[in-house]
Amino acid sequence: MRDTFRPYDYFSAVIDSEKAVIEDCLAYLDSGQCTNFNSEIGTIANSCTIISTCYYSMGKSIECLLEPIESAIAYAIKWSQASFLRSWYPMPLDMVGLCVLLDADEQIFESLASIFERKKLKDKRANVKDNLMENLLGYKLKNRDINTSHIINNGLPGLRQAIALKDTDKLQAEKVMKEYFDKISIMTLYGDMNDPMPHTYEKHYRGYWDFKGAAVSKLCGLDDSSYRDSIHYPVDLVEYHRQS
């Protein structure tokens, strides 16, 4: 067990529940009656990311964490009517953050980028390139326009600030990252940090890890000694990345 807040059986039950959600979505997609492919594929992608997170929380091998994400990508590719995995954060950030930490193949990043970029005529945000997402995708896709100033999620200023400082003041970037990990709560992990009802996230608990934060730390090449003891920092996953 990596997560000590919940027993093994809790995470196992969450995984079973999410797999059932995926099966229901797939049945609906196959029925020919689906009119909102984005919603169904987004739900599948969210469930797959939760499964990967639970695998990590319950102590499974790091090598198996990528399998659910690859499944989500495969489903999104099969149903090309879906414009992207999902528009809301933090799920896509955690998914790409995990891919960074797992040192996934470039093809994985290319597939994710192409899915995120599918056009959605009725959604004005469909073709927006978010700064943080572009930096994470740029881990393997060097031609990404990572200098975009657009920001979708206002709840993660620390990560954006660390990225902005990485080439000019690494010590300050490390201080920013420490402050970021010190302030993490279940609300900032699972939703809007300004949400007035934090209990709504408690029932969706799947681990206290911040994969996107750890991925940014690695992307910036920071010395993590001041915050690596944070319970939110997936130390062995970061070390796995360094050794790969």
In short:
With 244 residues, the protein is mainly alpha-helical. Helix content is 56%, strand content 0%.
Structural key phrases:
single chain; 244 residues; mainly alpha; 56% helix; 0% strand
- Give the helices and strands as they follow along the chain: HHHHHHHHHHHH
Q: What structural class results from the helix and strand content?
A: mainly alpha
Based on CA atoms alone, the radius of gyration comes out at 17 Å
Overall pLDDT metric:
84
Number of helices: 12
Low-confidence stretches: 191-200
How would the blueprint of this fold be written?
Blueprint lengths: L7 H23 L6 H21 L8 H13 L12 H11 L4 H11 L14 H7 L19 H9 L4 H14 L2 H5 L8 H4 L8 H9 L15 H9 L1
Helix pairs in contact: 1-2, 2-3, 3-5, 4-6, 4-11, 7-8
Give an overview of the whole structure.
There is one protein chain. This protein is mainly α. The chain has one domain. Helix content is 56%, strand content 0%. The chain contains 12 helices and no strands. The chain has helices at residues 8-30, 37-57, 66-78, 91-101, 106-116, 131-137, 157-165, 170-183, 186-190, 199-202, 211-219, 235-243. It is globular and about 55 Å long. The protein starts with 7 loop residues before the first helix and ends with a helix.
